[in-house]
Amino acid sequence: MNAANVPVASAATQNPDGIYAVDISTRQGDCDKAYHWLISVSDGRVNSVGATPMAASGQISGSGTVNLAFRRFGQVAMVTGRFASGYGSGTWSSPTMQCAGSWRAVRQS
User: Fold this and answer.
1) β 65-72/45-48 pair status
2) Domains of the chain and any CATH numbers
3) What is the pLDDT of residues 34-75, one digit of tens each?
């Protein structure tokens, strides 16, 4: 699923709050090819869950627009995309790591 396939019409009526499993794929650069971890969304604000070196921060708007940053070991990746109906997807890029790719998220609870 990519950002264009997330149902936008229902995003405004959906509450994105919950725990999400996030899968990140690197498409450009020498970063690890895949990452997987959990994030928590509460009142549209995003945070990391559990013991992870990756810190997630940012917000999901009422219309489902994603604007996040993932930080790890002094590196940062900017994340954009869409959330709706328990799913999210989009792209990420990191000028500090010179990598980019895509992400998907699925609500776990």
Assistant:
1) unpaired
2) 3-107 (2.40.128.120)
3) 989 899 999 999 999 988 888 899 999 989 999 999 998 899
